[in-house]
Design goal:
Elements (H helix, E strand, L loop, with lengths): L2 H18 L2 H8 L5 H18 L11 H19 L1 H5 L6 H12 L15 H16 L1 H8 L8 H7 L12 H26 L4 H12 L17 H14 L3 H8 L3 H5 L2 H21 L6 H16 L14 H13 L12 H19 L8 E2 L2 E2 L2 H25 L6 H12 L20 H15 L3 H4 L10
Antiparallel strand pairs: 1-2
């Protein structure tokens, strides 16, 4: 382990996070809330620590897979710890564990909450709460790689550790330029959503900004107690449906469209599978719940909204799907596992992994029928490397292991079976709402401290694809 290189990069990350924490201060000034101290203290602490860690540049600045994973895991835990301080200092969430849970949920873009009266919170706190989604959506390390000067980045192994999906892709030859391009697309889509919500609906600018942050990061924190349902506007719901879908798509495809490589964009297997699963689920749920609505258009809208909220793992709510028929609820739980596309801001296992599992199952059946046949698994016409197949298989084993252990730990609360299982599933897949007491109208406040810490682990592990968090617990990680 190259400790000096790790601490040097962590120092830069701390300074970036500290600078971002100053932004809510402007909101506090504008609304005359006098909460400057709640943000200035953790921001100054982060910057001071960052400067200390950067006083001496390491002689050997090489960063490889192990260092990249450690940097990724530590930075997300530390920024969640410091990100919780504004809640504690402002006394909006006095208990640190609850504040840490809320912040982990924000940065990991899960959207699970322990709050019961969101509308009573100060505007600067609400802004910070949604802003954590936006920061976590594309990732703080990717943001750092995008803004630091050229020559300062050993970035491939860092970005590989943070970018969701089986493989970190590059849209151009240099990883730093890739990060910048993807962040420009991310910012552009966020700004477009803000302007559309503000100009074409009756939504206030503050609400439009915070809603766009939560949609872009596919997180789901809202500034209203009833989430998006509180706006009572079909137009707002349809706009958010469109953007939830867009943010669940691989951002590389948007770049291909911009440079007119339409074949690369529109012949992508994962994209069309994402569309097919989405549309099929909307159709089936609409048929299943149509009897509960007086107008079919309302059923279609609620089905489309909740399918996209679950599949993109945004977690916004317009209907209490916990009261829907069992078939619809089961289908939504299945979509929690699928999630968005690789390279999107969505959570879940990712559409590509699900496709690879089915392709591998199909290949195994072929081999069983024809033992001497050479069967190759292809994606977008290209043969999938063996190490990627092995990686997706090991991911599934570890994923299921973490899920089972988490369910056992959370079951100590003594809550009902449905609530216990879906609470773990939604946290591990970064969805937010589940069923039972953690349904669209519920929250996580009643869980024990142990369960909340388990949820925090699951949320961060799910967002970072398991390994950056798990490697922190391996003794061999810290050997030179």
């Amino acid at each position: 382990m190259n400790y000096r290189a790790v601490t040097y990069v962590l120092g830069k990350i701390f300074m970036v996070i500290g600078a971002l924490m100053l932004l809510p201060i402007t909101i506090s000034f504008y609304y005359k809330e006098n909460l400057t101290i709640a943000f200035i203290v953790p921001a100054m602490l982060l910057m001071f620590i960052g400067i200390l860690l950067n006083l001496f540049k390491p002689e050997r600045r090489s960063i490889y897979t192990k260092e990249g994973l450690v940097i990724c895991g530590l930075s997300w835990i530390i920024m969640s710890v410091f990100g919780a301080l504004p809640f504690v200092i402002s006394h909006t969430i006095p208990d640190f564990i609850d504040a840490f849970f809320e912040t982990c949920s924000g940065f990991s873009t899960t959207g699970a909450t322990i709050l019961t009266d969101i509308e009573s919170l100060p505007k600067s706190i609400l802004f910070w709460r949604s802003f954590t989604h936006w920061i976590g959506g594309m990732g703080i390390l990717s943001f750092m790689i995008a803004i630091i000067p050229k020559g300062e980045s050993h970035s491939m192994f860092i970005m590989k550790a943070e970018v969701p999906g089986p493989k970190a892709g590059k849209v151009v030859s240099k990883i730093q330029e890739s990060a910048r391009i993807l962040y420009i697309i991310y910012c552009a889509l966020t700004l477009i959503e803000i302007f559309v919500l503000y100009l074409f609906t009756k939504m206030r600018l503050f609400d439009a900004v915070t809603t766009a942050f939560s949609t872009a990061g596919t997180g789901g924190f809202s500034v209203l107690n009833n989430s998006i349902l509180g706006y009572n506007s079909a137009r707002i719901e349809w706009i958010i449906i469109v953007f939830m879908f867009l943010f669940g798509v691989n951002f590389n495809l948007y770049f291909f469209i911009l440079i007119k490589r339409f074949s690369s964009a529109f012949k992508n297997e994962e994209f069309w599978t994402y569309v097919a699963v989405n549309m099929t689920a909307v159709t089936l749920i609409t048929i299943n719940i149509a009897g509960n609505y007086s107008r079919i258009t309302d059923a279609i809208r609620d089905a489309a909204f909740n399918v996209n909220a679950i599949m993109s793992t945004t977690g916004f709510g317009t209907a209490d799907f916990d009261k829907w028929n069992t078939f619809s609820k089961a289908l939504l739980v299945a979509l929690m596992f699928v999630g968005g596309c690789v390279g999107s801001t969505g959570g879940g296992m990712k559409v590509t992994r699900i496709m690879l599992y089915f392709k591998e199952m199909h290949a195994d059946i072929k081999k069983a029928l024809r033992p001497n046949a050479i069967v190759k698994i292809r994606m977008n016409g290209n043969v999938v490397e063996k190490k990627i197949i092995e990686g997706t298989n090991s991911y599934l084993v570890i994923y299921l292991g973490i899920m089972m252990l988490s369910i056992v730990a959370v079951s100590l609360n003594g809550f009902d079976f449905t609530s216990t299982i879906t609470s773990v599933i939604t946290c591990l897949n970064n969805v937010g709402p589940g069923l039972g007491i953690v349904g669209p109208t519920g929250n996580y406040a009643s869980f024990s401290v142990l369960s909340k810490l388990v949820f925090c682990f699951d949320m961060l592990a799910g967002r970072l694809e398991l390994f950056p968090i798990l490697i922190l617990f391996a003794p061999r990680t810290y050997k030179k």
